[in-house]
């Protein structure tokens, strides 16, 4: 019968301390917001989901490392923790912007102190996850944990940005150009997500082709596809169209503008991904 041992380094190392701060701060954020009772609606649900998810998963990660139980899991632990810390940083960052802009009015009318402290805790929680990402990021030339490398972290970023794009998509009509853009977002999202899942589940080794070159080729193809989307999406959505007045957060024009900026962000991400992936392949190739 296997006996769990205690590894105090899991809570005394800099990574462990960053995780403890993330647990405490995310718990503080969702507890304060829950005490106000003012988190109804889609944005409030998203914020509470983010804080609760980050609290629960980070606590589980910390306990598994403290008790040294993670080697028994059939996954690549370093890839999983690197991907989750990156995802958590992105989610908490989004929440730290969405919550105050939605639920703290000007002037604030109720539970102002709780909302302000919750927002501050959320921002500090984002910094804690950012520190964890920085501490666990692979050193140049080290690819033992792919998702801790720059291309791996960028793939998590690309998937998350694609999710934000999907959340802003509404009726994009039957214009072929806009349908192509949605196809670009969907295809790149699915393939990148599969790469992350296969990496964590240790399935990439079973692919019967040069993996590194395949990833470089995919990054190049995704970059080209996103270039077309960056041109076509604003062209068809803003050509001969002015911003309506008034135009609130549910206004289609604002959503289309948000998709435009997110498309540009992902275009840059795929460009950097291609550059770093190419460098990794070059470094690993024997001279």
From TrEMBL:
The UniProt keywords, alphabetically, are: Membrane, Repeat, Transmembrane, Transmembrane helix
Residue stretches spanning the membrane: 12-34, 46-64, 84-104, 177-203, 215-236, 256-276
Does Cytoplasm show up as a keyword for this record? no
As for membrane topology, the entry says: Multi-pass membrane protein
Q: Name one Pfam family in it.
A: MARVEL
Matching entries from PROSITE patterns are given as: MARVEL
Q: Where in the cell is it found?
A: Membrane
Query: Please, which domain of life does this record's source organism belong to?
Result: Eukaryota
Identify one Gene Ontology CC term for this UniProt entry: membrane
Name the predominant localization.
membrane
Q: Where is the MARVEL domain?
A: 10-141, 146-282
List, alphabetically, the InterPro entries matched.
Marvel, MYADM-like
Q: Which family does it belong to?
A: Belongs to the MAL family.
Name used for this protein in its record? MYADM protein
* Species of origin: Pedionomus torquatus
Upper classification of the organism: Eukaryota, Metazoa, Chordata, Craniata, Vertebrata
């Amino acid at each position: 019968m296997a006996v769990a041992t205690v590894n105090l380094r899991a809570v005394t190392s800099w990574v462990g301390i960053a995780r403890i701060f993330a647990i405490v701060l995310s718990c503080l954020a969702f507890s304060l917001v829950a005490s106000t009772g003012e988190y109804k609606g889609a944005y409030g649900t998203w914020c509470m989901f983010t804080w609760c998810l980050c609290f629960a998963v980070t606590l589980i990660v910390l306990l598994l490392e403290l008790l040294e139980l993670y080697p028994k899991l059939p996954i690549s632990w370093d890839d999983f923790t690197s991907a989750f810390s990156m995802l958590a940083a992105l989610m908490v960052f989004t929440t730290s912007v969405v919550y105050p802009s939605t639920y703290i009015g000007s002037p604030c009318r109720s539970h102002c102190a709780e909302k302000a402290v919750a927002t501050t805790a959320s921002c500090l929680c984002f910094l804690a996850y950012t520190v964890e990402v920085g501490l666990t990021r692979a050193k140049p030339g080290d690819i033992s944990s792919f998702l801790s490398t720059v291309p791996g972290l960028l793939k998590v970023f690309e998937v998350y940005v694609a999710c934000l794009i999907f959340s802003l998509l509404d009726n994009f009509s039957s214009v072929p150009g806009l349908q192509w853009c949605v196809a670009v977002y969907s295809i790149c999202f699915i393939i990148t997500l599969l790469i992350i899942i296969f990496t964590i589940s240790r399935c990439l080794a079973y692919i019967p082709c040069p993996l590194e070159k395949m990833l470089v080729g995919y990054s190049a193809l995704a970059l080209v596809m996103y270039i077309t989307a960056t041109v076509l999406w604003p062209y068809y959505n803003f050509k001969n169209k002015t911003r309506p007045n008034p135009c609130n957060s549910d206004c289609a024009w604002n959503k289309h503008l948000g998709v435009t900026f997110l498309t540009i962000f992902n275009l840059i991400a795929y460009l950097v991904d291609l550059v770093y992936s190419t460098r990794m392949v070059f470094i690993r190739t024997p001279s």
